[in-house]
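Quarterly update, task 2.4: tryptophanyl-5'AMP-bound model.
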Amino acid sequence: APRVLSGIQPTADSFHLGNYLGAVRQWVAMQDTFDAFYMVVDMHAITVQTDPAALRRRTKVAAAQLLAVGLDPERCTLFVQSQVHEHAELAWVLGCITGFGEAGRMTQFKDKSAKQGSDSTSVGLFTYPVLMAADILLYTPDPVAGGQDLQVPVGEDQRQHLELTRTLAQRFNHRFGETFVIPEAYIPEASAKITDLQEPTVKMSKSASSPQGIIDVLEESGPMRKKIMRAVTDTGSEVLFDPENKAGVSNLLRIYAALGGGVTIKDLEKRYEGQGYGQFKKDLAQVVLDTFEPIRERTQKLLADEAELDRILARGAERAGAVASVTMDVVRDRVGFVGRGRAE
Ligand code: TYM
């Protein structure tokens, strides 16, 4: 079967609406038709200073949330990145074929490091996209079998990192012989960039959005409803999709259509014609609550049995590790590392 692979950082106590619509929902849909690998990327999370207890907690919450939205450990491989050591190992090799300038052109790095200043920016943040390339390429389907696919469902903000991954895969193949399948970014346009509720021209973001601008999947219903009612809308009062001039309303329409069980943006424009923003937001809040409430409940149940959660992740790491170690053996050989013989 063709493969699908993706990852999410455990950098907050919950995923937000952008993560859910931009990525995680596609993960669930794809687990049936693909050989699926999904991971919580805790090694990426430590590229900025992180409290160990918080990281441990968030990693488990992230895993529980992924199960709660519908990932099924029988149908996909769910694991924690740091439990499969080949990720770090391949990242080193790929780092050695990445240009310094090439890595420096990553816009996410430029934005984040500009905000932090160079002394508090870690080298890990700089090489972050290389680790991401390793995450992906370790799960390359056998290139010799031919015609195999490796799909990576992500939001728009990861497009440049995917491009770099493709470049590195091609470069490695060219220098060392066919090894990696060239992965494809899977970015469905409708929900590729969910924006901040208070600043509807920039993406909703764990690190950059204000609490008022972001909706967490695990948030309590009261605050969730309030945030939607207070979302920035635009001058005028028509519920119309016009991303250029009505960024706020257009973002809300996107969210509504994505969660509304088949209703289209056109349908919604018609339904709210002449009604103003109030009723529209009220109904949208209900749709969001109806989606997230059951997820919140299931997450709490899953977190109540930590031993079972640990077992699921251990099985996931075992399955992921089996694939990763085969790829890494090939890579070591291609690069010219001497295989370890017997000690006696
Ligand atoms: P992360 O943890 O920032 O986000 C997880 C996923 O959510 C998407 N996303 C959004 N989609 C739409 N609208 C938004 N406002 C929005 N905000 C976030 C992201 O695009 C992402 O798909 N580098 C990755 C994690 C990663 C990874 C990988 C992904 C590490 N290794 C290998 C794929 C394959 C990241 O920081 O995602």
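Highlight for this quarter: Residues 9 and 45 are 6 Å apart (CA to CA).
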